[in-house]
Amino acid sequence: MQYVGIDVASLKHDCTVITDQGEILKDGLTITNDSDGFEVLMETMRRLDVTPETTKIGMEETGIYHERIRSYLMRYGYSVYTINPALVFHSRKAETLRSTKTDKVDALVIARYLMMYKGSLHSYTPSLYHLDALKSSTRIYHTKRETLARTKTELKRLLHSVFPEFKAHYDPLSQWALELLESYPTPEDIANMHEKTLVRILRTNGDRLETAKHIRMLAKKSVGQSDPMSRKLIRFAISDIKHFNSQIREIKEVLKEQMKPFSHITSIPGVGALTGATILAEIGDIERFSHKTKLLAYTGIDPVIYESGKFKARNTTLSKRGSRYLRSALFMAARVACVNTVKIRDNKFRRKYEAKIREGKHHYTAIFAAAKNLTYTIYGILKSGQPFEFEY
Predict the structure, then answer these.
(1) DSSP assigned state of 174
(2) Is 169 helix (H, G, I), strand (E, B) or coil?
(3) Separation between Cα atoms, residue 370 and residue 380, nearest integer Å
(4) What would you report as the CA-atom Rg of the chain, rounded to the nearest whole angstrom?
């Protein structure tokens, strides 16, 4: 048996080939991340008699850069193993006390890791088309939301300097406030605008005329500092907020359509279309996990266990390994299932949460205890394909 370790990068890959005795057959092979480079690797393996039947190929799961070469090798029948970069990192540290890290060294470490742990690893199998589409859509959705949150923070920061009084009395992110500040971004602009125009823009509860007078009074007495650039920056921020809000609404509609074949997941209390899409996309092919505890470890919501001699740590933290998007989705789903008593009927996750609260546990500790049970339930439902059944 031969083992091929590939250290993946955006423009090039470093490859090492070893035998099952650890002998290096080929070291220091660098190929470009394109069809020409892939053909060089294929020709090298042919010369070394590294055939699909006698070869296992390993690479780190690094964003999107490993996907092209993984698909290329699988088309030729090779078994490809994608390995968590954290495992490779600790494996490299275990081999030497030196702080040596090069792409060539990493390729050898990956090959040796694959040789040592081949029995516990599972080769990559192409996930369903829907899951691939879900992962792409959910990652875009979360990226857009993060960008939107940063833009909202930037708008608040600008208002704190330009018009702090408005931010203190009104929500600058409300629809009417965005419309007002986009057209009249500074206190001077608002103070000089016609009162009837301001009233037409306002969409607040109560007397709009009184609100308009109050806003104009705040504008006239404002201690904020504004200049032409501040005016432009506020308008840019509001334009970006509207832009990203529009994109997020469209992405949500796409996700809801993509989730129609997976109604068994959304039958779980607390799991809606968006959280369900994230959970499915980040887990991928459930057949990768031979037991529910392995899925739990993959989510990163399992506790860190620390024991040494007679010492056993009682207060530990979450491991937080794996996808942060998956952890966040599980936490949100568990919180909705446990706390939202209006829309979500009584369920085993809420009972778990309430039991932990009675034991004196912190709210978040109880939520993550429920999220652990939720993870086990998700595992069972994905394995069986059957919807969630409430216990009476």
Answers:
(1) S
(2) helix
(3) 16
(4) 28
What one-character DSSP code corresponds to residue 140?
A: H
| Residue 221: DSSP 8-state | T
For 33, residues 6+ apart whose C-beta sits below 8 A from its C-beta are 9, 10, 11, 12, 13, 65, 68, 69
pLDDT digits (tens, 9 = 90+) for 230-286: 999 999 999 999 999 999 999 999 999 999 889 999 999 999 999 999 999 999 888
Query: Which amino acid is residue 4, in one-letter code?
Result: V
- Rounded CA-CA distance 249/235 in Å is 21
How many whole angstroms separate alpha carbon 108 and alpha carbon 104? 7
Neighbours of 231 (CB within 10 A): 17
CA distance 240 to 178: 11
- 212 and 249 belong to one structural domain: yes
Say if residue 233 is in the same domain as residue 162.
Answer: yes
Residues 378 and 330: their CA atoms lie apart, in Å, by 10
Say if CB 83 and CB 59 are below 8 A apart.
Answer: yes
Give the pLDDT confidence of 75-105 residue by residue, as tens digits. Answer: 999 999 988 887 787 777 766 656 666 778 8
Supply φ then ψ for residue 6, to 5 degrees: -125, 120
Backbone angles phi and psi of 97, in degrees to 5:
-85, -15
Structural domain of 116: 2-124
- Residue 176's alpha-carbon distances to 200, 201, 234, 237, 317, in angstroms, are 10, 6, 15, 15, 43
Alpha-helical (H) ranges within 97-206 are 103-116, 129-162, 164-169, 175-183, 187-192, 195-201
Q: Are both 307 and 206 inside the same structural domain?
A: no
| Domain match, 11 and 120 both | yes
Instruction: Give me the residues paired with residue 4 across strands.
Output: 17, 57
Beta pairing, strands 55-60 & 24-32 = unpaired
pTM attached to this predicted model: 0.74
